[in-house]
Amino acid sequence: MIDLFVIKVGGNVIDNPTLLEAFLQKFAAIKGKKILIHGGGKIATRMGDQLGIASRYVNGRRITDAATIDVVTMVYGGLVNKQLVAKLQANGCNAIGLTGADANIIPAVKRPVKEIDFGFVGDVTTDSVQAAPLQALLEAGMTPVFAPLTHDGKGQILNTNADTIASSLAIALSQHYSVRLIYCFEKKGVLHDANDDNAVINLIDRQIYEELKADNVLTDGILPKLENAFAAIESGVAEVLIGHADDVQSNTTDTVAGTLIR
Ligand SMILES: Nc1ncnc2c1ncn2[C@@H]1O[C@H](COP(=O)(O)OP(=O)(O)O)[C@@H](O)[C@H]1O
Ligand SMILES: CC(=O)N[C@@H](CCC(=O)OP(=O)(O)O)C(=O)O
């Protein structure tokens, strides 16, 4: 099978012009087939504040009411997605910006209301992801760039966590390609101590994950990121890595830096 890199870049990198520029140069230089998924949660929060629409989170997920879905559609599907595409084009990468609604690639279901009403948040089932249009774009030499938006098939855009979009696409495409899923953020990997940037854990399996959780080493966004990483590796994705945005290029070779998920 042909190799495919499915690469996700987080909001802290997108929000830092120096880190972002370096990341996009390295991403553009990666040879072979690749897909980029971007977040942008921090920018959406800032834009919402400017519009008088405050952000609320439960369990790390944004409560996406009617006003908020408009903000995130504009920010993720417009501002962030198109800026990334233009910068990749400037770096010689033939990027094409997409949401999950485009070509019906990522249908989703509005999260059912239980104790919490998350509003217009979409849950993805990997068997509903449409790989064929993505394959057509990849075979034509283009690099799809995904905003973290999905749709319900009835005309409603939905907000879906970018880490989840990345693992769902990686799983669906692993039927056609040998996929390496790489989560890029502003740390060198999963750390033994979140404040010590050099304390990288090289390898995490389910048992180590449970021990790290019990020891309170893992908090905040790294928990859903690891859940998505395990979902991918347990559903046919060949390799999953979590590392620094600066290491994206080396992480597409045999010399990996960061945390390998097994
Ligand atoms: N042990 C840990 N190692 C690395 N990051 C950690 C750890 N514990 C908590 N974190 C936090 O998790 C965050 C990553 O999650 P998140 O903000 O969702 O990433 P992204 O920017 O990719 O969306 C880091 O910025 C860090 O603050
Ligand atoms: C449902 C949900 O929470 N969606 C996320 C999508 C953006 C995202 O995932 O951005 P980062 O990768 O920068 O965190 C949100 O709106 O914050």
How would you characterize this protein structure?
This protein is an alpha/beta fold. The protein has a single domain (3-261), classed as Carbamate kinase (3-Layer(aba) Sandwich), CATH 3.40.1160. Helix content is 36%, strand content 21%. It has 8 helices and 14 strands. The strands form 4 sheets. Strands 5-8-2-1-11-13-14-12 form an 8-stranded mixed beta sheet, with helices on both faces. A hairpin with a 2-residue loop joins strand 3 and strand 4 (61-62). Helix 3 (41-50) crosses helix 4 (66-90). The chain is globular and about 45 Å long. The relative contact order is 0.17. The mean pLDDT is 96. The protein binds adenosine-5'-diphosphate and N-acetyl-L-glutamyl 5-phosphate. Adenosine-5'-diphosphate binds at residues 10-12, 39, 185, 187, 190-191, 194, 217-222, 225.
Backbone shape: globular
CATH fold label? Carbamate kinase
CATH architecture: 3-Layer(aba) Sandwich
Helix content: 25-40%
Number of domains: 1
Count of helix runs: 8
* Rg calculated over all Cα atoms: 17 Å
Q: Largest sheet, order of strands side by side?
A: 5-8-2-1-11-13-14-12
Ligands (ions, cofactors included): adenosine-5'-diphosphate, N-acetyl-L-glutamyl 5-phosphate
What is the CATH first-level class name? Alpha Beta
The run of helices and strands is EHHEHEEHEEEHEEEHEEHHEE
CATH superfamily: Acetylglutamate kinase-like
Strand-residue proportion: 15-25%
Mean pLDDT: 96
Secondary-structure class: alpha/beta
Distance between the termini: 21 Å
